[in-house]
Specification:
This protein is of the alpha+beta class. Helices cover 30% and strands 24% of the residues. It is built from six helices and eight strands. Bound molecules: zinc ion.
């Protein structure tokens, strides 16, 4: 039985956990909602790992994300309570969906200790899902643009602005590191199984879902 009080938190425990995951032959499973690691605030990355261990962890997280497949993965989703996430969105998307959702390719990057704030007051409402809540999607009201402050894997502090779908991914992954799931911010009446989404609500926008599900 998992005891949140016994969750790894000292630098030695964190390093041991990561080395154990890196030593396995198989990719680690993606932790599902209900596990306390997804609800705890992750620890800042602060020298717990040697540079090659950090690089190995980032590579592994990228593999897990691609295998899933997904456009982002936060370290707690493989049970590692560190403020680290990887993002990449290079999938082919239909032109009408890309236009409506302002979805453009996002080259791979890793963010450490990220924080974001909205840029402006424009909001965007679209369906999103999470690799830790498999089988379901819901509409989340998020800033249409965000400013992200983070550290890269070389330890350089950076600030980048993101708009559209990229801003959504950045916010979703950063929220994970504070123990927040998209469900916490979702419009609950929009909640839909993937099958119902594919059958009824996969249009570029949410107007039909809003009418059909009355939210
Ligand atoms: Zn997620």
């Amino acid at each position: 039985m998992t005891d949140p009080a016994n969750a790894p938190h000292t630098p030695a425990q964190i390093r041991g956990l990561v080395r154990d995951i890196l030593d396995r032959e198989a990719l680690p499973p993606i932790v599902q909602a209900g596990h306390p690691v997804l609800r705890a605030r992750a620890l800042p990355v602060d020298g717990q790992l040697e540079p090659e261990e950090l690089a190995g962890l980032i590579d592994l997280m990228r593999s897990v994300m691609c295998e899933a497949p997904g456009v982002g993965l936060a370290a707690p989703q493989i049970g590692v309570p560190l403020q680290l996430a990887v993002l990449e969105d290079l999938y082919d998307v239909a032109d009408d969906i890309a236009a409506e959702r302002d979805r453009r390719p996002l080259p791979f990057f890793a963010m450490l200790n990220p924080r974001y704030e909205p840029l402006g007051t424009t909001r965007a409402l679209f369906y999103e899902g999470c690799l830790s809540v498999t089988g379901w999607q819901a509409v989340v009201d998020r800033p249409a643009a965000v400013r992200l402050a983070y550290m890269n894997d070389a330890g350089t502090h950076l600030s980048r602005d993101f708009t559209g779908w990229q801003a959504r991914i950045v916010a979703h992954e950063t929220d994970h590191l504070a123990g927040t799931l998209y469900l916490d911010k979702a419009i609950s009446r929009s909640f839909t199984s993937n099958a119902e989404y594919a059958g009824h609500w996969a249009q570029p926008g949410i107007a039909e879902a809003r009418a059909g599900l009355q939210f």
